């Protein structure tokens, strides 16, 4: 067979460089497989959690009927109400924490006041109700749009007022003893005792 001739010379075949093959150490390969597996597991867990949360919103009664939990809470606990002000309650808090009563006269109360109300008053409602209230009461800047009691029904408002009165009575009883109040109130009404709840803000 005749070979091709270029300029009177036999043409040489160009050598194709071999590709560099990078060998992945077994431990690195195993690590990548493990990482992929973990990410897959995490994704599956997240999807399962979403399904559980969706299912938890449905409540089934013994007779087989179902209700949507969010709708039930909206109808029985949440609405939009006018402002009310419990002056004796705020004055009892001033005495409980040993601060000047004048600080309770301003519109924006000291930081320990909303913390007290969220934990000892709002916290007395069932957790799904609290979660729903927070979802409907978004922050506008640094503050929420409403006071929580402005979003509750007449029925829930009666409970709220009772919680206020109970906290007020015990605050008067333990004047100047906030930690003693925490222990006694939480024990009586089934809340978790957190003695450091107001540390750093009084």
Structure description:
With 202 residues, the chain is mainly alpha-helical. It has two domains: 35-76; 87-189, no CATH class. The chain has seven helices and six strands; from the N terminus they run E-E-H-E-E-H-H-H-H-E-E-H-H. Strands 1-2 form a two-stranded antiparallel sheet. Strands 3-4 form a two-stranded antiparallel ribbon. A two-stranded antiparallel sheet has the order 5-6. Strand 1 and strand 2 form a beta hairpin. Helix 3 (87-97) runs parallel beside helix 6 (154-173) and helix 6 packs across helix 7. The termini are far apart.
Give a short overview.
The chain is mainly α. It contains 7 helices and 6 strands, in the order ββαββααααββαα. The protein folds into 2 domains: 42 residues; 103 residues, no CATH class.
Count of alpha and pi helical runs: 7
Rg from C-alpha positions?
Answer: 33 Å
Number of strands: 6
Helix amount:
40-55%
Largest sheet: 2 strands, antiparallel
Instruction: Quote the distance from N terminus to C terminus.
Output: 101 Å
Q: What would you call the shape?
A: globular
Low-confidence stretches: none
* Helix/strand class: mainly alpha
| Element pattern in H and E | EEHEEHHHHEEHH
Which strand order spans the largest sheet, edge to edge or round the barrel? 1-2
Keywords:
202 residues, two-stranded antiparallel ribbon, 2 domains, 6 strands, mainly alpha, single chain, two-stranded antiparallel sheet, 50% helix, 7% strand
